[in-house]
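Severity: low
Component: inverse-folding endpoint
Summary: output formatting inconsistent between runs
Steps to reproduce: submit the following structure tokens with default settings.
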């Protein structure tokens, strides 16, 4: 009996898919060879006894014994090798056939290797839109159709879109690809020809399908005016795709079908059009019967057509009209405009004389709502890195990547983790690791479940400067904070002193500083990690005086004219310079320090008190004050106040009693205006002239109203930082 021993893992065998022969040198085992083995290794290699002709008889004998032969040949040591599928038979007959094959090559035994299935040309397992397939009822192939588009299921599994009527209302189950070179698109034969499968096994199974209304309902043509079914469509899902298949988001143009490779020349699908096409616009389709053809969208860009089943049952299908050439067997084939998917072939009627081709497409606009969660697979180009990575970059630096126009996110993978960042205006930005050394990024442009090929990017990270946060406070106890490489040593130079810290595992560090005087300081911070010292990062520390307090003018107050303020006082820090802005003007800088003039500069020197004089009471109007104090040239936060001074009250004119004209006057002669009356006396004005005083009263009222409004406006303008 021939010994059947498995091939050692240390041996490598290359399978030549174009023939039954395999040949490759075996890799050396890890064990040190014995002296005898060494002599064999050093001896001249013997020629193998593999015949020049393919071992057809041996393969046939093995097949007859139940061995599903994948490949035959010898390994690097000249030992015969038989590669079989895991479905092969075992037993005495099989062993005898293997022994006979080994004897034919002059060897006492053969190695046997088992693989999952027989290999096929990779082109045959590349599935593209427009390819033909055979639908099965049980184990019998009964109907031809064409693939529309590669798709994704809601669970992220690969799927295919085709026409619903290709399932015969769900009666058909499995599908298998047919050999392209024998399809009518190549041979010109009748649509029903080309039954030969391409040898790749079962493609997948029909899942959901709908042809016509809900539950494949017929159109009701019994009424005088049939009403289209708004749910009418024509779609099927092919799912449970075999693991050997690679579903590509492309459409074949059938130009390479004679080589049985539909994926060699294709049109990529970059987007999905879910709007109505434009009348007169170009449209193309791909299918097994008429191949790749183009035409023009007709007048009916969104409507219903009655498509009949093989049994003559009418079904409403919503979509659009074109004159693109199509025929039976093209059903389900891809319909597209440029690189945009738009629908699948549903039905039509051929041209006749002057009557043009009528082709009806079930539009994706109305198909997709019937298959929620499913999406057409898109071809997405690889992303490209904009940032120059030819030289080392600082840890934590940003990298900018250009993504294709149909990508919405960028997947960023590293050796240890992964992330997804949004694409905005064709760009994605992210930060790299801060750990020095060699790094690799894996970049993939994505749009929902569709994705590009992954780009591998190698680059070097050098120890970058740590991050330090600026501080602006009124507290003399200051905490410096920042980030760096976890485990790095931090050295900070501040005001002539050196402080140290360590970066925690959360990449954060902090240093406490006590009794820092009011002022502005620079801080310089470096980090050291694994013997590398970074450049310095710089920051600012500002310790400010506290704001002034206890202001003599209260925010939001309206003063009567006689009580209008003539100065402003408050409390502050001894030695601080107080600046007062009145309606934006610096009154404290206008009087040269003279305390009895408007704007006298006030310095808090006694009991922390200060006073700034306006020089006189303020007149009627609205006012805004902003007050700060400065120590060592550093100003406090401002305190803002708004207030009003009312218009002075105007008393009405009292009535005057007429005087006696006096002796000697002629009471019968009226006095001329401006002249002395009889007796020479002037006549004063008498009574209350309402026409004169009313405008004055209204003016005063208006000033009060305006002043109150100004307070509200000023309060909103200057915020809510008020004195208490």
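Observed output (run 2 of 3):
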């Amino acid at each position: 009996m021939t010994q059947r021993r498995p091939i050692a893992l240390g041996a490598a065998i290359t399978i030549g898919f174009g023939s039954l022969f395999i040949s490759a040198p075996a890799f050396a085992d890890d064990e040190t060879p014995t002296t005898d083995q060494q002599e064999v290794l050093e001896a001249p290699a013997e020629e193998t006894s593999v015949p020049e002709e393919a071992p057809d008889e041996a393969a046939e004998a093995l097949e007859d014994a139940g061995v599903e032969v994948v490949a035959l040949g010898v390994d690097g040591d000249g030992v015969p090798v038989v590669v079989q599928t895991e479905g092969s038979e075992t037993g005495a007959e099989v062993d005898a056939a293997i022994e006979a094959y080994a004897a034919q090559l002059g060897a006492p035994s053969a190695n046997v290797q088992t693989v999952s299935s027989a290999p096929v040309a990779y082109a045959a397992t590349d599935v593209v839109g427009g390819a033909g397939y055979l639908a099965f009822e049980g184990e019998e192939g009964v109907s031809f159709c064409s693939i529309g588009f590669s798709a994704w299921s809601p669970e992220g599994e690969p799927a295919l879109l085709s026409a619903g009527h290709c399932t015969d209302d769900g009666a058909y189950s499995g599908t298998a690809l047919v050999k392209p070179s024998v399809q009518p698109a190549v041979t010109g034969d009748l649509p029903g020809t080309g039954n030969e499968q391409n040898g790749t096994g079962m493609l997948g199974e029909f899942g959901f399908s709908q042809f016509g209304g809900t539950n494949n309902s017929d159109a009701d043509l019994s009424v005088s005016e049939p009403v289209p079914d708004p749910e009418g469509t024509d779609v099927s899902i092919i799912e449970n795709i075999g693991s050997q298949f690679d579903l590509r988001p492309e459409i074949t143009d059938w130009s390479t079908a004679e080589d049985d490779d539909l994926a060699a020349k294709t049109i990529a699908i970059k987007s999905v059009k879910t709007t109505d096409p434009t009348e007169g616009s170009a449209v193309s389709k791909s299918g097994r019967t008429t191949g790749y053809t183009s035409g023009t969208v007709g007048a009916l860009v969104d409507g219903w057509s009655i498509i009949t089943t093989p049994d003559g049952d009418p079904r409403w299908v919503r979509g659009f009209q074109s004159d693109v050439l199509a025929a039976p067997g093209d059903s389900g084939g891809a319909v597209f405009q440029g690189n945009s998917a738009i629908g699948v072939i549903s039905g039509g009627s051929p041209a006749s004389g002057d009557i043009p081709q009528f082709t009806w497409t079930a539009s994706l606009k109305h198909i997709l709502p019937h298959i929620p969660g499913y999406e057409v697979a898109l071809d997405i180009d690889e992303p490209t890195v904009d940032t120059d990575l030819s030289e080392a970059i600082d840890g934590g630096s940003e990298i900018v990547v250009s993504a294709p126009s149909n990508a919405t996110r960028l997947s960023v993978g590293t050796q240890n983790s992964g992330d997804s960042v949004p694409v905005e205006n064709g760009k994605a930005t992210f930060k790299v690791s801060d750990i020095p050394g060699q790094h690799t990024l894996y970049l993939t442009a994505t749009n929902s479940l569709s994705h590009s090929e992954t780009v591998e990017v190698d680059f070097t990270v050098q120890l970058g400067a740590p991050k330090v946060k600026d501080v602006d406070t009124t507290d003399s106890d200051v905490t410096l904070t920042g980030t760096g490489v976890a485990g790095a040593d931090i050295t900070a130079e501040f005001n002539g002193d050196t402080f140290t810290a360590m970066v925690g595992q959360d990449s954060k560090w902090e240093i406490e500083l006590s009794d820092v005087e009011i002022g502005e300081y620079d801080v310089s911070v470096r980090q050291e990690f694994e013997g590398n010292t970074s450049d310095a990062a710089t920051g600012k520390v500002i310790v400010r005086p506290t704001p002034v307090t206890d202001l003599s003018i209260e925010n939001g107050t309206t003063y009567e004219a006689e009580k209008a303020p003539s100065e402003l006082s408050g409390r502050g820090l001894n030695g601080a310079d107080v600046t007062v802005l009145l309606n934006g003007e610096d009154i404290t800088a206008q009087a040269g320090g003279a305390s009895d003039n408007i704007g006298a500069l006030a310095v808090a020197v006694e009991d922390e008190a200060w006073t700034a004089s306006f020089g006189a009471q303020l007149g009627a109007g609205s006012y805004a004050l902003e007050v700060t104090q400065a120590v060592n040239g550093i100003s406090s936060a401002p305190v803002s106040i708004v207030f009003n001074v009312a218009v002075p009250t105007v008393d009405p004119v009292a009535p005057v009693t007429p005087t006696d004209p006096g002796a000697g006057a002629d009471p019968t002669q009226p006095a001329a205006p401006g002249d002395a009356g009889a007796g020479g006396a002037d006549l004063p004005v008498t009574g209350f002239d309402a026409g004169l005083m009313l405008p004055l009263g209204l003016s005063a009222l208006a000033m009060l109203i305006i002043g109150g409004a100004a307070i509200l406006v000023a309060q909103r303008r200057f915020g809510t930082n008020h004195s208490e």
